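Private note to self, pasted from the team thread so I don't lose it. C-alpha cells:
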C-alpha cells in the first residue's frame, strides 16, 4: 500500500502565531507537505496563495492576533485565501485563538472571525497559554 503525503495549505497572517505555525510544522513533518500564505508585501503573494490552494488536498486556517496586511483589494491575504478555499470547496479546518475582551483586536479580524463562525466550518478554539 503506497504511503501518500497530503498537501495542506496553511492560511494565516504573515508574522503572526509563529510558535503555533512551528508546532503545526513539527506535527505534520512526516504526515503532510505544508505550504503557507506568504507576506502580502511580495508582488505575487495572491497568485502564490491561489496556486497553493488549487493544488492542496486540505486547508488549515489559523486565526491569531492579526488580520494581516490589508491589500489594494481591501482585505488581507489570509481573508483572500479563506474565500478562495471556500470557493474551491477545499476541506477546511480552522483554528481560532481565544481573545479576551481587553485584547483589542482589529475590527477586520473581528469581522473575519464572525464570518467564519457563521459558515459551516470545522472550528476549534485554542489558547496559547494552555493549548
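Design output:
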Amino acid at each position: 500500500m503506497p504511503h501518500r503525503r497530503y498537501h495542506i495549505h496553511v492560511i494565516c497572517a504573515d508574522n503572526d502565531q509563529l510558535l503555533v505555525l512551528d508546532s503545526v510544522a513539527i506535527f505534520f513533518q512526516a504526515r503532510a507537505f505544508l505550504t503557507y500564505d506568504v507576506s502580502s508585501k511580495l508582488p505575487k503573494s495572491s497568485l502564490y496563495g491561489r496556486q497553493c490552494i488549487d493544488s492542496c488536498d486540505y486547508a488549515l486556517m489559523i486565526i491569531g492576533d492579526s488580520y494581516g496586511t490589508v491589500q489594494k483589494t481591501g482585505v488581507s491575504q489570509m481573508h483572500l485565501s479563506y474565500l478562495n478555499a471556500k470557493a474551491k470547496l477545499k476541506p477546511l479546518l480552522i483554528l481560532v485563538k481565544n481573545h479576551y475582551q481587553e485584547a483589542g483586536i482589529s475590527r477586520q479580524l473581528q469581522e473575519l472571525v464572525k464570518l467564519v463562525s457563521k459558515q459551516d466550518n470545522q472550528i476549534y478554539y485554542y489558547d496559547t497559554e494552555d493549548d
